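Okay, can you check this protein?
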Amino acid sequence: MVRFAADLAAAKERRSLSSLIEWAVCQALQKIVVATPNEQQISALDVAKEVWNEDEIVRLFLLAERYPTLLTTEQRQLLDLIYHNDHFVISPKSKAFDAGEPMQKIRLKEVRLHWQTLKRVVAGDLPRSKLPAGEEILVGVPSDSTTKTSGKRKP
C-alpha cells in the first residue's frame, strides 16, 4: 500500500519514484532532532551539513569532536584504536600535543595508510595484531567514546 501511495504522489508531483523518496527523506531529516547542545535543537540534516567532508576519516573526526553522542559503536571502536595507539597519535611529550583539538594530535597520514586495516579490525575480519605496533596511550578521546576495542564484533 505504501508503494502504491508513493507511486501516486510521484505521478502527481511529476517526479520519479526515487526523486520523491529522496525528497521525502530530506524532509524527514530536517525534522528529526538528533542533538540539543545548549538547548538548541539540531536536525540530522544540520549535523550532516556541519560535519560533511568528502574524506571519510576527516568526517569521522569532525563528528567525534562536535557530536560524540551520535557516534556508532563501530565509529567509537575506530577512534579507540586510533587514539590509543602511538603509531597514529603524536607523542604526548611533543609541544604540538598540548595544542588544540584531539584531531590535531592525530597522524592523519598514518591513519589514511592503515584505514582499511583499522576498519577490518573493528569488523572482526582481522586480528588487532595486523595493526602497526605502537605503545598503548590515552589521549583526549571525545567525551562519549567509552567503548574499548577488542578487535571482535560485539553481539
Summary: Residues 56-130 form one domain. The first strand starts at residue 33 and ends at 35. DSSP finds eight helices and two strands in the chain.
